[in-house]
Design brief:
CATH class: Alpha Beta
Bound molecules: glutamine
Shape: globular
Distance between the termini: 49 Å
Strand order of the largest sheet: 2-1-3-4-11-10-9-6-7
CATH topology: Rossmann fold
Number of helices: 6
Strand content: 15-25%
Structural class: alpha/beta
Number of strands: 11
Radius of gyration: 17 Å
Order of helices and strands: HEHEEHEHEEEEHEEEH
Number of domains: 1
Low-confidence stretches: 4-11
Length: 265
């Protein structure tokens, strides 16, 4: 009889054991959650590794955060986007622990990317909601973003006002919130990433990503983890010349949290 593989033992497949020269950074453990239907956990784990940290797979129905120092809630279609994108994942056992740790005095850094951002709004760690793109189509493009807040746990390695190019791919990417919430986000500088040039989905105030009040929880719709290796990411030169593809603009999101955690030690 075939050996049974309990769900909690399902491994995150892939070799993330990149050599790193900085032992302080590699001592930082970043959890990457996998729900049924998650797509981008491997790329998120690889981004953590390329930034110099240690990626720790976290399974959705576990309640053990395994002493991680930060958590990435990656993109995809958790639970098939049934009910609403992110709504079921928000109730997963692992998220109960993430919410607790994010709200604790220790302020665990949490990053939600795309479906992860949808999960974070559904948990109310972040305000507002994600609804269907205004054009009602799935969209996939290289997107210019401006870093409007470089004081969060996930953006401190960027310059304020810096523009980066990362991929965007979703159907429920339109960020909406009531007028009071939008006003508060703007007044408190909590719009972290803003769409530049094109607003690809009708998001209010061109909002691509936001933070909670303490700046430890950040969610964004575009995908920094898909732009972490020169030669493989989007064309940040804007020339359309494949030979000029830079594509590592997203790496700063992951180095930010590692450097911040190391300097806080
Ligand atoms: N790339 C993704 O994470 C997709 C997110 C989400 N399920 C959507 O399509 O809106």
């Amino acid at each position: 009889m075939a050996e049974s593989l309990a769900p909690t033992e399902v491994p995150l497949v892939g070799d993330f054991s990149q050599p790193t020269t900085d032992s302080a950074l590699s001592g930082v453990r970043v959890g990457v959650i996998t729900f049924p239907g998650t797509l981008d956990d491997r790329d998120a784990a690889r981004a953590v590794t390329l930034a110099g940290g240690t990626a720790v797979p976290l399974w959705h129905d576990s309640t053990d955060l395994q002493d991680v120092d930060a958590v990435v809630v990656p993109g995809g279609f958790s639970y098939g986007d049934y009910l609403r994108a992110g709504a079921i994942a928000a109730k997963a056992p692992i998220m109960e622990k993430v919410i607790e740790a994010a709200n604790s005095d220790a302020a665990l850094p949490v990053l939600g990317i795309c479906n992860g951002f949808q999960v974070l709004t559904e948990t109310h760690l972040l305000p507002g909601s994600m609804i269907k793109n205004d054009h009602r189509k799935f969209i996939c493009r290289d997107q210019v973003l401006r870093i409007d807040n470089n004081e969060t746990a996930w953006t401190s390695d960027f310059e304020k006002g810096q523009e980066i190019v990362v991929p965007l791919k979703n159907q429920d990417g339109q960020y909406v919130a009531d007028a009071e919430t939008l006003e508060e986000l703007e007044a408190e500088g909590r719009v972290v990433f803003r769409y530049v040039g094109v607003n690809p989905n009708g998001s209010r105030n061109d909002i691509a990503g936001i933070a909670n009040k303490r700046g430890n929880v950040v969610g964004l719709m575009p995908h920094p983890e898909h732009a972490v290796e020169p030669g493989f990411g989007p064309d940040s030169s804007g020339s359309g010349d494949v030979a000029l593809r830079g594509g590592a603009d997203g790496l700063g999101v992951f180095t930010s949290v590692l450097n911040k955690l190391v300097s806080a030690r």
